[in-house]
């Protein structure tokens, strides 16, 4: 759509801008302010420059948390995206079954995040949980408070349970927008199922998958409440992700300077990765369209 | 001609082969359909099992939960629910949560509507940068903003009020609302606006009486997302409240970290947090397929 050049549009933006500025710019400036100072009390503070940033970047505990965070985010993306596409292909297209399946699949998305943690805690406990007891009956000493591998597997399973619906629903809406004529043409050409998926369905899904992958990456990188309730970051610190390290430092220990520096680094990493994702996907899309045109 | 009576041996063979191929194809279609249903059914079981378990535990007493393992409540009890509905500490949590979620939905949608219209219809100085900046707010981890929010709202005297949480959630909900609404608004042809102006409509009258009804499914979907992200958030709502505006999620974490956990009440409280979500998703079930693509399919 060709848009009109008109700077009066700023008046329409203004109310929104004032609100978001109040809840984004002022706090962000506070963080920047703390990150370059050493604060003792309300009146005593020293300028430290980039010292906190150096301390934070060299902290082994935080480096470990960062690596865990990346491992977690990429694992869940690798599982949830193909699974979500698969579920979307399986979902019924019309009738009451379609509505029923939609509502059931959406359910996990609407549960408060710490309740998701509680649900999985109740589900996986070795004494009262269905899954915990079930696995133990099978002869494996499943214990998420003792065994880091179990804790990891459970957190990943929980995230797959919680967020695959988002990808599935995005893909479902993408599939619904494909006109029937495409499928008829494919049938006339005797196209195989794989060819239909690869050349008709997948290209239509690219748009929604960009949104899905971005949202999933962002949210998995900020994950806090679910592992906090389920494992408390343990056993040891094997499931402590970035948000939890930051919260412990900022609220628990009240280390204003270091935690502010850490916040900024954290925020910048998310921005950078999202930007890389976004441009990479956009560029590959552009290549596809030019190849299709040639 | 396949329908004519076969006369030569080849045509008999050919017809038989065709009929067999058709039968095979039908049989294959039936098998594929059943395989699809089974796979989807398995996934739905995976989705429902943890929720079922929560429901199961919520109807048991603590002694039954800890004492015996059963797939359904042996001594069905609603005592856990009764405790929540009679104790003000518990049920006020739901009231508080709903209060700030509704406030946030109202604030977010009312400032996001004009802004999204501006982004979808006009070019102006800094529009692309502004849009990207808004999206960066969507990416901001709440943990980063915890401490400054606490200090900011404390210093302006809003700490432990519903409006503080509602404003804090605007950080990610307003950009999200603008992003979704912009997609829906861009699918309305510009000629609609132009015709309305020629017919003598003023901008506010056109916007409220013509434009908003045209994108009402988009508004519904946006409200659904605003509800969802405000309802499920824990970190900010827990930090910005103490007693008067404490959300249910935060009350639940305090119970679950205490020694000697009250499993039954925890499960019942969890079940009750799912119900508002079911109500909301029931209202938007027909628009959700389009809306989840944020109007961009």
Question: What does this protein look like?
Answer:
Chain A starts with a strand and ends with a helix. Chain A contains twelve helices and three strands; from the N terminus they run βαββααααααααααα. In chain A, helix 3 (60-90) packs across helix 7 and helix 3 (60-90) packs antiparallel against helix 9 (193-221). With 294 residues, chain A is mainly alpha-helical. Chain A has a single domain (61-293), classed as MetI-like (MetI-like fold), CATH 1.10.3720. In chain A, a hairpin with a 5-residue loop joins strand 2 (37-39) and strand 3 (45-47). Chain A is globular. Chain B has 297 residues and is mainly α. Chain B folds into two domains: 9-58; 86-291, MetI-like (MetI-like fold), CATH 1.10.3720. Chain B has 14 helices and one strand, in the order H-H-H-H-E-H-H-H-H-H-H-H-H-H-H. Chain B has helices at residues 9-58, 62-67, 79-86, 88-121, 127-139, 142-155, 162-186, 190-198, 203-214, 216-232, 235-239, 248-257, 263-283, 288-291; one strand spanning 122-123. In chain B, helix 1 packs across helix 13 and helix 4 (88-121) packs across helix 10 (216-232). The relative contact order of chain B is 0.12. The interface between A and B is large, with 94 and 96 residues. Strand 1 (4-5) of chain A pairs parallel with strand 1 of chain B. Chain A: It holds the Pfam family BPD_transp_1. Chain A: Keywords: Membrane, Transmembrane, Transmembrane helix, Transport.
